[in-house]
Amino acid sequence: MDPITALLCGAGSAFLLLGERGATISALVLCAAFYGVYRATRSRAALGLMAPLILAFVLQAFWRLAGGDVREGFVHDAPAFLGDLVFAGTLIGLAMVMRAGIGKGLVGLVAATLCAAILARVFAAALSLGSVDVRSLVPFFSSGFHALMQEGRVFVAAALLVLGAKLGGAPAPRPVGLVLGAAGMTLLVATLGTQVGTKTFADALPWLGWLVGWVLTAVGVASLARNGAGAAGWVGLGLVVLQIPVGGILTVAMTEEMRYARPDVHPMTVSAFLGFGGVAIAAFAGKGSPLPRARFTAACLMLASAHGALVQLATMGLRVRHAPGWGAIMGTLYDLGLPLLAAYLVFFAAPPKTEEP
């Protein structure tokens, strides 16, 4: 392992997870990470991708620096809109450059997630110009874009760590279920980040994504059980499957009464303690899977999310007056734990080929 390459890729990974794209220091550190990718792959395309990265930053800062006085409308949003698209495209290009060192699974996950984010951003912009009924779909696509972009950043961060550490391994004997599970976890996080309701077609879309996401997540947990998790993995699968009807009943029952009283608490998340707990159990029990430390990290995040969701259920549904204040904080860790586990599943399904000595 080249320590300089590992340091550069690790710094870029940290800023993708924690940093803000609009900050100058973030752009500089990401450029350094691109140089680290060049050192690892010897592909000049990694250096060329610095140009659109800087362009994305300039577009984001353009309106503020220009001092424009247009407060609303498409013209006002154009620099941020273009900056978002350029940044997402740059990350897709970076994943393509790293493909030999991170495996086809991670490349596909990054590309699919960020392409979906681009489409969501374009749909939101186009629908904002339509009628009142059409504009009701804008919050769904806009919030979905932000959730998908955050997931894409996590996936690219994981890819940088895989490349910098030169990780590899043997592919899983049953990879299809792992890939479907990763898709379900990605969809689930994107759905949990959207606005929900029960009265219009736009309000119904998150519920459909919630259902499909949990079904595919159950397929991924079953694949973990078949690939080494054993009996504990099947127990986790049972909890995930049980979450679908129980979670649906709890969520619908609580949404009508309490969604406006606690707008900071997502009703879908409140009911997810069974599913999060099942995913955590299956991940903890994944004997024989590669990268046990990464798997344990994702499992701990999911276990914390299950605890936070249970605390939220107690405070909202059972009217418990006193509960640990950090319970709500732990309930938000799913938006990091599920993407990390999704990245782990696709790495397990299609790791990079081990180089011959």
Coarse morphology: globular
Beta content comes to under 5%
Number of helices: 16
Distance linking N and C termini:
14 Å
Order of helices and strands: HHHHHHHHHHHHHHHH
Structural class by sheet pairing and helices:
mainly alpha
Overall radius of gyration: 21 Å
Task: Give a quick account of the main beta sheet: strands, pairing sense, barrel closure.
Answer: none
Mean pLDDT figure: 81
Helix content: over 70%
Total count of strands? 0
Low-confidence stretches are 68-75, 258-263
Layout of strands and helices, then pairs:
Elements: H1 3-18, H2 24-41, H3 44-48, H4 50-66, H5 74-97, H6 99-102, H7 104-127, H8 132-135, H9 138-165, H10 175-192, H11 201-258, H12 267-270, H13 273-284, H14 292-316, H15 326-331, H16 334-349
Helix pairs in contact: 1-2, 1-9, 2-4, 4-5, 5-7, 5-9, 7-9, 7-16, 9-10, 9-16, 10-11, 10-16, 11-13, 13-14, 14-16
